[in-house]
Automatic annotation (TrEMBL), chain A:
It comes from Novosphingobium capsulatum. One of its GO terms (molecular function) is sarcosine oxidase activity. The keyword S-adenosyl-L-methionine does not apply. It comes from the Bacteria. It holds the Pfam family SoxD. It is an enzyme of class 1 (oxidoreductase). This is Sarcosine oxidase subunit delta. Its EC number is 1.5.3.1. The keyword Secreted does not apply.
From TrEMBL, chain B:
It catalyses: sarcosine + O2 + H2O = formaldehyde + glycine + H2O2; sarcosine + (6S)-5,6,7,8-tetrahydrofolate + O2 = (6R)-5,10-methylene-5,6,7,8-tetrahydrofolate + glycine + H2O2. Belongs to the SoxB family. Residues 35-79 form the Rhodanese domain. This is Sarcosine oxidase subunit beta. It is found in: Cytoplasm. It comes from Novosphingobium capsulatum.
Amino acid sequence: MLLIHCPYCEEDRPEVEFVYGGEAHIARPLDPATLSDEEWEHYLYIRRNPRGRHHERWRHTHGCGRFFNAVRDTVSDRFEQTYKAGEPRK
Amino acid sequence: MMRFSGLNLIAQAFSGHQSWPEQWPDKAPKAAYDVIIVGAGGHGLGAAYYLAAKYGITNVAVIEKGWLGGGNTGRNTTIIRSNYLYDESAHLYDHAVKLWDGLSQELNYNVMYSKRGVLMLAHNVHDIQSFKRHIHANRLNGVDNEWLSPEECQAYCPPLDISPNARHPVLGGALQRRGGTARHDSVAWGYARKATALGVDIIQNCAVTGIRRGPDGAVLGVETERGFIGAKKIGVSAAGNTSVVMNMAGLQFPLESYPLQALVSEPVKPIFPCVVMSNTVHAYISQSDKGELVIGAGTDQYTSYSQRGAFHIIEHTLAAICEIFPIFTRMRMLRTWGGIVDVTPDRSPILGKTPVQGLYVNCGWGTGGFKATPGAADLLAHTIAHDAPHAINAPFTLDRFRNGRMIDEAAAAAVAH
């Protein structure tokens, strides 16, 4: 089980308190109606799925309830850092 | 290649089984091949075999970064079934089940396909409605599947607790009698042995590090740890690492890779006659011929390539197993392990051509690729040989995420499968 640092609670808490939220920094298009099929596909379905450094969202569901972002190595599962939602990509 | 037979076995017994010949030689790569398959699991080795056996393309190499059958082929819970809801999926998986039927004879290698039946338990009204819908859809597609009452479920699988006070009451079940299990390692070994006998080279411990493309964009071959190997056609059957391989060709895929765990108990005498799946509480269980209970757990929530998962996932599955089969509460577990599964947004595979000329893909089988091994291999070989998909895999394109023709088995089952 992962130990995850919540940047809002500023505590290391067990993974079962959190829900994974998928790849981070995917902004919802402001005007979906103007998107081409390819752009819409890219927004909805295409994922980087990297072997290594991964930017991802987590939600501290059974804690403060807030979304935040994390950088994790997908080979070792080790967290590099977590940071608050809205902060630039680390 | 030595043909296995009863006489052969007796003859070898006289020399204490010390003179069995090597079953497949480990080859050094040639400069170029007609076709390269990336990934020597059941799907990849099978594709190489069918290319040689059905389409006469024998100048084929299967390149594997680890050892043969060491990925998800050696890590699954060996369940075979084809009771999928949608027509496209039913045709695809039933194609595989039909091939499982004659596979041991065709390969002259015992893959131990055992039609012991796959029983899916219904625990609530939604399950009953969903399973009955599946049963009717399956029967329209010529796939066997039948409804059993709780008493019939227990008669078919005696360790089952069907008491109304159970934590997860059994309200009935859907049984596919042709479903069952096979020995996973034998599938990889059988295909490897027969493919090499037909001229296929299997190159292990040789990771692909790049895909070289010409000025027109078509593939020229693969860069590997042992140098460049040329090929006009490349089939990728790399499961959890598909995104990584596709990135080498400049493609991004609608895939995410998750750890999926399984575990086995200590071996005991035959107690469990079939395969039982409970989607609602997430428990898959069967008994191997060695006597171990083989149990499938769920995926972890986060993407990973670590080939290991969290313990609370196993705890969750074992809690469900102990409630449904109280007889197993004092069994001890022997080993747990994880594999990396590549999951598509609609939980159906991608099997066909890619936007890159000469690059073919077989991926996205998610948590249920083993059952499809012979079918996927056969269809990948067909697609490579004809440069066009077979009617069965034609709907499983990469384009469906753009044009919206999804095959949404995720919504149909509402769980990993």
